[in-house]
Structure to design on (150 residues):
């Protein structure tokens, strides 16, 4: 089976993505040109979150990426693909079999990684401008950032 999910997040900053991965205990594999997945597209998944539908990644390109993300406990990895619809990168992973661990760890739409990326991107931008950033984790799992000028 191959159930390759495309993530609706355009990554514009690999440094922020790498920082987000580190925060979550993931390993960012810069310049790794393949990512682990089922290994062949079976034409058996066509839901709205299928990578070829929502990100435009050609199924012939599944497994071939610009960078990868390793999630401890999973034999599959998240692929960081050049965005076929424009600038930046999009993410995709196979959520079948061992890929279920990726889904269970980060959310089916990689919500935890999206959140960590957003926090990392804002933090990097603010610090480049000389601002101070403080972070508070709220009981509902959301994060509140306070950015103050120096």
């Amino acid at each position: 089976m191959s159930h390759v999910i495309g993530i609706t997040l355009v990554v514009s900053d690999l440094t922020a993505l790498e920082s987000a991965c580190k925060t979550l205990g993931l390993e960012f594999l810069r310049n790794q040109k393949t990512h682990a997945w089922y290994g062949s597209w079976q034409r058996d998944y066509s839901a709205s979150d299928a990578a070829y539908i929502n990100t435009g990644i050609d199924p012939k390109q599944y497994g071939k990426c610009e960078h990868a993300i390793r999630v401890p406990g999973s034999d599959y990895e998240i692929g960081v693909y050049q965005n076929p619809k424009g600038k930046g990168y999009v993410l995709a992973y196979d959520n079948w079999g061992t890929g279920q661990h990726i889904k269970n760890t980060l959310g089916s739409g990689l919500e935890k990684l999206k959140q960590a990326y957003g926090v990392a991107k804002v933090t990097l931008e603010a610090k480049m401008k000389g601002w101070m950033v403080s972070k508070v984790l709220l009981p509902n799992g959301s994060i509140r950032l306070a950015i103050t000028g120096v």
Remarks:
- The chain has one domain: 4-110.
- Strands lie at 4-11, 27-29, 67-70, 77-82, 89-94, 132-137, 143-148.
- Residues 4-110 form one domain.
